[in-house]
Amino acid sequence: MSSSGTGYGTAVTAWRAAAPDWDAYTRHAFVEGLRDGTLPRAAFLHYLAQDYVFLKHFSRAWALAIVKADTLPEMEAATATVHGLLHYEMGLHVKICAEAGIDAETLAATPEHPGNMAYTRYVLEAGYSGDFLDLLAALAPCVLGYGEIGARLAAEATSDTYGDWIGTYAGDDYQGICRDVGALIDGALTHRLGPDYATLPRFAMLSARFAQATTLEVGFWDMGLSPSSAPA
Ligand SMILES: Cc1ncc(CO)c(N)n1
């Protein structure tokens, strides 16, 4: 996939281009280790367990988006994402971990790493104290960054080792969610701010939120690469 992104909408394309850490996130050493299969299994499993905890809070944040939405189509889009997270993406974690000998009970008891906590609480707080747009800007790098990573790795992977993981994010279901979320964001901006939303100061503030969440994604990969940084 080209460095211009994967076409998830107008706003996200602008926010992505303005986020200083976008490449650090989507081309992190952890990601490159998934691509060529050199990522140590222990780091992957440590990451997956933390990501299981992450996805629980992330699902809660998308549920909050239902509360903060205005129109029925916005509520439907947010609901579809909650459903995809709980019934599709988390299932992958449970399956891969089960194959590696980590049962669902152990996964559910994973102690939450501070970097993980910082990220999800940042997103949730954007929703608690802000409006639907603040929340979407904080949620967007997670959803769409993984879509971009998955699409690129499906094209560039040189190893099958992490093929299941790559296939989840490169697959039609996940790519469809990414396109829907991109359209949701463009529609929500137009609905609230008008068609010239990209010229407004508010758009720059939302762009900063997107950039902050992107930086927290870099921290998440960093955490994945150093299993020893996990709390007891
Ligand atoms: C940390 C993180 N960001 C984004 C995604 C994609 O949902 C994920 N599973 N984990």
TrEMBL record:
Residues 16-225 form the Thiaminase-2/PQQC domain. Pathway: Cofactor biosynthesis; thiamine diphosphate biosynthesis. Gene3D superfamilies: Heme oxygenase-like. It catalyses: 4-amino-5-aminomethyl-2-methylpyrimidine + H2O = 4-amino-5-hydroxymethyl-2-methylpyrimidine + NH4(+); thiamine + H2O = 5-(2-hydroxyethyl)-4-methylthiazole + 4-amino-5-hydroxymethyl-2-methylpyrimidine + H(+). Pfam families: TENA_THI-4. GO terms for cellular component: cytosol. Its EC number is 3.5.99.2. Keywords: Hydrolase, Thiamine biosynthesis. Signal peptide: none annotated. Belongs to the TenA family. This is Aminopyrimidine aminohydrolase.
